[in-house]
């Protein structure tokens, strides 16, 4: 993608269109590139979350493999409660032979994650729930670290990044020139070097920017929330057994355990039996018999009508699964896997899974790491290029088109953006108003000077 100027074109309309596109490419970059750098760095780290967390928190998450039988889940929960008094709310079994078990305990000071050696019941340590290094990176990446309202920035940044790619492709288009299309000319001290580096990098990473923007939208504040609500409202799109003859509580799955995005609004069934409840060991034995992938989490019932909820979201989408067990009979009230999702849920989950570097294993992680590095290089080269081009004492906004009718296309863009992505449309309207005000201010300044 390029901010470069070109020689005067024989058709004035084309020249005006180029100016308008260049101007809005500049604005898009000004708004989005700082966020893209942050998202790229945190995103590149998060695709290697398991590897990094297992290394950084090895004293809590990793144990020496032993030949002895692992202790029963109830014994591990008892050890955790001896170390951290409170009420156990979740049990997560080891994902492999060298992993620890994690018990989430609700205390007066908040939830704590207690890590226990599954072979001997030794408590390895405890920390606030969801406070590992990669959970911190995740909250930074999603902007949750700065509050719920900051998630709206994701939607705006995603929409503007798509605009950035679209306008960048137009500016990159060869139009007869030989250099700066797929090759870099000159040396770093020359602006044309940074222009070419920016253009060549942009044309290769543009696809990934658009893909990551669209697949990241589900986490946005307005669009993502509305799509999630629409996809999951009243459990629409779920198998008949989810909606029929299964008493539903008002509690949502996202409130008790980490879950797939498309299931965040799914309601949890209620236990209908009475009498003596089954134990955690019974529930785990039942879930093992049902074939849940190793490392699944079991949310413990916290009230008489509560259920045991087993859930697992491994890299393999086909192994995603949620099972709710009646706490008295142990019968499965709901058993849902990826195969049971509706078409929209499957598409969204595939996009999110790939966005997080899981779908294609290590190859997926390496490709996203390279894409994130390319996006950072794109932002840096844009900054250097702008610095070398800008007039002294000026922001260096690209020139206005002589024929203002080209701005009609922007109004169409505003309408489309406003319908599909409300926050993006609103931000485009604000930028258009600011641009018009900037133009009038410049004109007024020149008039006064004369």
Automatic annotation (TrEMBL):
Keyword Protease carried by entry: no
User: From which domain of life does this come?
Assistant: Bacteria
Q: Name one Pfam family in it.
A: PepSY_TM
Q: Which UniProt keywords apply?
A: Membrane, Transmembrane, Transmembrane helix
Q: What organism is recorded for this protein?
A: Paracoccus aurantius
Protein name in UniProt: PepSY domain-containing protein
Q: Which InterPro entries match?
A: PepSY-ass_TM
Enumerate the transmembrane spans. 24-48, 152-173, 193-214, 366-387, 407-434
